[in-house]
Amino acid sequence: KKLYDISQTTMTDKSVEKAQYDERNLIRALVSNPPANIVAAEPDQMPDNKGAYFEPEENCIYVRKGMDAQEIFQSLVPELVFAGYAEGNPDYDRSEDAFHAYCASYMLCKKYGMDTSQFDFTHASEFFENMEPQEVRGELSKARDAANAISGRMEKVLEQDKNLNQRQQGRTEAEQKESEAKTGEQKVQEHDRGEA
User: Fold this and answer.
1) 117, 115, 111: which is closest to 154 by C-alpha?
2) First and final CA of the chain: distance in angstroms?
3) Positions of the chain with pLDDT under 50
4) Are 74 and 105 in contact (CB under 8 A)?
5) What strands lie across the sheet with 37-41, from one edge to the other?
């Protein structure tokens, strides 16, 4: 049995730092390439004071005006899930997919740092009552797949933003170094003129 001192190891800390996302970029990524049209609506036009609502007959998601980024994200995600389920499905039933949309919404809010305090899974066991383990896995997979579909679309946009920001930052640093180099050359020239 060999023992090692911590100083003899080269392993670095593997704890992954959670990425911080700008709320505007998150919303922009969320609405990119949606399965249904997204339209802003006046608060009095929304059913039951909802923040967002998917209307399958119109293939449109209505989003209430005047919400902050957290509210938009939390109300729009489940409606995007419903729109994804309805896409190409003539037998779409909102009530049948409500639990999956709720779960997918929780997963995405958690992943992207949104508030998850309003989610309550105390009655989740009722949904799985009388199901076999394979059926439970299938239901959970349906929610995971919906969350992954939305997350995949979002990641493409967020990655593009990240690359653009890195290029802009690289340009800014290069311009700053170039400016410092010119300033240094000017000082040398002024110094040379002073001696001549």
Assistant:
1) 111
2) 76
3) 196
4) yes
5) 37-41, 60-64, 52-55
**Residue ranges with strand state E in the chain:** 37-41, 52-55, 60-64
Instruction: Check if the beta carbon of residue 100 is closer than 8 Å to that of residue 142.
Output: yes
Residue with tokens 């339209």: 39
With a CB cutoff of 8 Å and minimum separation 6, the contacts of 70 are 23, 114, 115
The pLDDT of residue 38 is 93
**How do 60-64 and 52-55 pair as beta strands?**
antiparallel
**80: how many CB neighbours lie within 10 A of its CB?**
26
Q: Using CA of residue 165, residue 171, residue 172, residue 173, what is the dihedral sign?
A: positive
What is the pLDDT at residue 89? 86
| Cα dihedral 69, 70, 73, 75 sign | negative
CA angle 64, 69, 75 (to 5 degrees): 50
C-alpha–C-alpha distance, residues 158 and 113, integer Å: 14
pLDDT at 18: 56
The residues, any chain, with a CB within 8 Å of residue 11's CB and separated by 6 or more, are: none
pLDDT digits (tens, 9 = 90+) for 36-86: 999 999 988 888 778 999 999 999 999 999 999 999 999 999 999 999 999
